[in-house]
Design a protein that fits this description.
two-stranded antiparallel ribbon; about 35% helix; single chain; Peptide Methionine Sulfoxide Reductase, Chain A; globular
Amino acid sequence: MNIKPIIATAALGLTLSLSLLGRAGAADPKDFAPLPQPQAGEEIAVFAGGCFWCMEPPYDKLEGVSATTSGYTAGKLENPTYEQVSAGITGHTEAVRVVYDPAKVSYERLLEIFWVNVDPTVDDRQFCDKGSQYRPGIYPVNDAQWEAAQASLARLKENKPFSDPIKVEIERAGPFYAAEVYHQDYYEKNPVRYNFYRYSCGRDQRLQELWGDAAGG
C-alpha cells in the first residue's frame, strides 16, 4: 500500500489546521510575554531564522543560555501583534532573543548554532513560510557582536557546503518586541502540533540538504 498520498494529505490538513489554530493561538492576542532581563554577567543576542517556534529549541538546550523569547524585530511599528507581522505590513521579522552567559557559551557559538538552523540562501522566506516577515537575520547589540557576526559570515563564505550565495542580513539591533504568550515555548507546550508543523514545513529536510550532519547544531 502506497502511504505517501495519505501522509501528504494528512500533512496538508495539519498545515491548514495550524494556520487557523496553532499560529493564531487561543490566548488573548494582547497578552504579550514579558522580556526576561539579563542577570549580572549575562548578555543578549538576537537572531531571526523563520518561524520563531523553531529557533527557541537550539538555544534552549545550550548550557549558558538562561532564556529565549520569541518576538519581532527590524520593523517600523511599535508593539506589533502577530496578526500585523504575519500580514507582512510592519517590516518586522520573526526573531528570538537569547539571554546567555558569555562565561559559559560564547557569542561565536551562538552564531554557529544560528547558521546550521537556517536556510541562508534566501532573504524573503524560510522553508514553507514565505514573506519578508520570515527573512533570516543577525542583529548584533554591540560592536563586539557586530565584528563577530561579520567574521562568522566571512568564514562561512569561504567554507560553505553549498553553492548558492548567502543572503542573511546583518543589521544593528533595534527594538525587540516579545510575541504573545501563546507563542513562547510552543515546542514544549504543544509538542505534537509543533513537530507536525516542523515536518510539514520541510525544515529539517532542507537543513539536511544544506548542512548535512551539522544541520541543527
